[in-house]
Amino acid sequence: MKQHNIERRGFLKQMAVTGVAAVGSGILPNSSKAEATPAAATKRKLRVGVIGCGNVCGSYVPDLLGNPDIIEIVSFCDIILRRAEAFAKRHEVKDFYPDVDKMLAGVGFDLLVNLTSMPSHYAVNKAGLQAGKHVWSEKPMAPTVAQGKELLELAGTKGVRFWQAPVVVITPQFRFMAEQLASGKFGPVVAAHGTYGHGGPDWSAWFYQKGGGCLYDLGVYNVTTLTGLLGPVQEVVGMTGMVTATRRCADQGEVKVEADDNTMLIMRHASGALSHVQTGFCYSEYELPPVNKEPALPHTIDIMCQQGSLHLQGWDWGPRCVDVAAPGNHRLQSQCKEAAPSWAGGASHVARCLVTGERCLITPGHALHVLDIMNACHESQRSGRRIATETSFAWPILPAV
Ligand SMILES: NC(=O)c1ccc[n+]([C@@H]2O[C@H](COP(=O)([O-])OP(=O)(O)OC[C@H]3O[C@@H](n4cnc5c(N)ncnc54)[C@H](O)[C@@H]3O)[C@@H](O)[C@H]2O)c1
Question: In the chain, is it the N or the C terminus that has fewer CB atoms within a 10 Å radius of its CB?
Fold first, then answer.
């Protein structure tokens, strides 16, 4: 089990909000009311309830516990109660629950961290927001754009904050690339590419069943990065495939594959730039640098401009540096080698934003647009047509420099 997690950790080791409205939806996810959080007002720690005690929980919890100045985990919840109990016992947390309703009726908390499997995200997010909790959700926030809009509206009505993974826009490398592009010295962006894939998880069957798939689980990172850098998307063309007919997973044994495990997505951005994402659960595992060569990792994001180009080394959720072909000097130079925050650090990051009032670059409007794009990809596969998106988001993400 946890092969994917172990790979992520090995990979990382090796490498040494403000409010955004969904344009046209009338949604105000980050009302000024929401800025005045209970924790900020009373200067006490932010109380966190964690729901979904599976694979990724094992990475989130150490990160949350690494912020004892601001965060206190007060409860765990999982429909498989022994999982919640095991986390609670291991971390000396008294309260654990078998479902979200019992959790919300139990010991009080401020921030719900939703790490359940994708098909449960919408119902759990809705229950948390309805109960007046701030919510950090793993991606995607909901299966449909209509349900996503409903959640953003609910957060606005309740005066709470709602954020979604992934955390790619808070890396130093994202900031570096965004600032380079905004400087204008590279000229207009014309094309871009993102890739993320591996052999697929082997612990839970839902990844391969309806509501799962590689685009929502993996491609979502690249779609977030590329829209973050190039801006909103107007139309989408997608093709998806199922390379493997069945998969063996620890929880259910052999299961039929019903969701995409091999996906290509093409986007036309409002700027006119074209980008594409390739993602799969059917790739060989990570490529590593050749032995005895200067350490380098494969490029996973390529941004092609008329006067130069930017190439991200390492996955966008854990990048190593950016290789830059600057105007007039097309020999690649590695820049921005700063360590990135943990890919499992989103809940801690937003907790800190809640407590300090710091501006958060991760926004629900952006996540909703990413969901819209991913659903358009599937609709394009179903219909054989290019699909117009129905949302947009406030862009650029970074304030002007
Ligand atoms: N595992 C990773 O490496 C990884 C990395 C990044 C993001 N994610 C994302 O994190 C989420 C969880 O992934 P995972 O690998 O931990 O899955 P998992 O199957 O290992 O764990 C999910 C847990 O949620 C529980 N659960 C499901 N529905 C629930 C409900 N309604 N109420 C309470 N508990 C419920 C399940 O019993 C299970 O223990 C997914 O959205 C995934 O895309 C996973």
Answer: C
